[in-house]
């Protein structure tokens, strides 16, 4: 629980907040004047500690707990199936780091981890990676989505779990309207990465059994944690290799 959000949730009743945050323990052991010398967030916590309707308890063991029913992600499309009914699940992730020997360029890469879910556990099968040079974050995310779609079997139910809200929202909500409007937004401007989104439209029409959902990256709880972590590790490895090999290209155009 976010410590600063506990009082509205209490709704006037006495509650106990259990947290693994070490800094909170420092605040609970300090007087209010001393606490004000701590980190600004600790000052906010100290203000809450004055309240008599909330008690704080620090428990370091809480960090190891797994709450599989609690997932930090945006609402999924209404037609999404139970996780184990998908034959294939793709997790996409990207990574970037400063390119060797440069000051203003980055070497980026993305990775896709495919597998399936059984008995609440993700079973990885294949890993796909690609270096994309000095690339914008949105284009990197979009290229990862395109690769996942290209590896999707049209005859099998497939779930793509993406950390990019930009890609998921566009795929599920805006793509149909963009195509009708000639890939122009509500202001009449050309949609960024128009050519890439054109590829997505063509792939989507051939893949009636694919669903795309969003999950926040680097989460520690939830059914998607393992798959997302594996994709994250693969992306970091790919970008490290790309950086050492000096795989650097010029910054792409919006339609690249």
Structural notes for this entry:
This protein is α/β, with parallel strands linked by helices. The chain has 8 helices and 7 strands, in the order H-E-H-H-H-E-E-E-E-H-E-H-H-E-H. The chain has helices spanning 6-10, 22-28, 32-35, 40-49, 137-150, 165-180, 194-206, 225-244, and strands at 15-19, 54-58, 88-98, 106-118, 121-133, 158-162, 210-214. Helix 5 (137-150) runs parallel beside helix 7 (194-206) and helix 6 (165-180) crosses helix 7 (194-206). The longest helix has 20 residues, at 225-244.
Structural class: alpha/beta
Radius of gyration, whole Å: 22 Å
Average pLDDT figure: 76
User: Which CATH top level class of the largest domain fits?
Assistant: Alpha Beta
Whole-number tally of structural domains? 2
- Based on Cα principal axes, name the global outline: globular
The CATH architecture classification of the largest domain is: 2-Layer Sandwich
- Give the topology string: H per helix, E per strand: HEHHHEEEEHEHHEH
Number of strands: 7
Tell me the name of the CATH homologous superfamily of the largest domain. Answer: Ribonuclease H-like superfamily/Ribonuclease H
Beginning-to-end CA distance, first to last residue: 41 Å
Helix-residue proportion? 25-40%
Query: The biggest beta sheet, please?
Result: 5 strands, mixed
Summarize the structure.
The protein is an alpha/beta fold. Helices cover 35% and strands 22% of the residues.
Note the topology.
Elements: H1 6-10, E1 15-19, H2 22-28, H3 32-35, H4 40-49, E2 54-58, E3 88-98, E4 106-118, E5 121-133, H5 137-150, E6 158-162, H6 165-180, H7 194-206, E7 210-214, H8 225-244
Parallel strand pairs: 1-2, 3-6, 6-7
Antiparallel strand pairs: 3-4, 4-5
């Amino acid at each position: 629980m976010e410590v600063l959000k506990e009082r509205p949730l209490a709704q006037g009743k006495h509650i106990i907040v259990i947290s693994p945050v070490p800094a909170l323990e420092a605040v609970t052991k300090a007087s209010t004047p001393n606490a004000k010398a701590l980190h600004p967030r600790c000052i906010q916590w100290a203000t809450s500690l004055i309240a008599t309707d909330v008690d704080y308890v620090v428990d370091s063991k809480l960090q190891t707990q797994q709450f599989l029913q609690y997932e930090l992600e945006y609402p999924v499309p209404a037609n999404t199936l139970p996780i184990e009914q998908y034959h294939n699940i793709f997790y996409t992730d990207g990574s970037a780091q400063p390119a060797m020997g440069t000051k203003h360029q980055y070497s980026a890469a993305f990775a896709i981890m495919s597998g399936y879910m059984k008995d609440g556990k993700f079973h990885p099968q294949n890993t796909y990676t690609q270096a994309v040079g000095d690339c914008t974050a949105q284009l990197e995310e979009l290229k990862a989505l395109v690769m996942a779609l290209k590896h999707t079997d049209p005859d099998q139910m497939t779930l793509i779990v993406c950390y990019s809200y930009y890609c998921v929202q566009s795929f599920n909500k805006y793509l149909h309207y963009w195509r009708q409007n000639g890939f122009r937004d509500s202001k009449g401007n050309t949609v960024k990465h128009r050519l890439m989104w054109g590829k997505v439209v063509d792939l989507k029409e051939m893949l009636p059994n694919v669903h795309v959902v969003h999950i926040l990256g680097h989460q520690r709880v939830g059914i998607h944690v393992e798959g997302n972590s594996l994709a994250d590790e693969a992306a970091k490895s790919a970008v490290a290799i790309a950086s050492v090999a000096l795989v650097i290209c010029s910054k792409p155009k919006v339609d690249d």
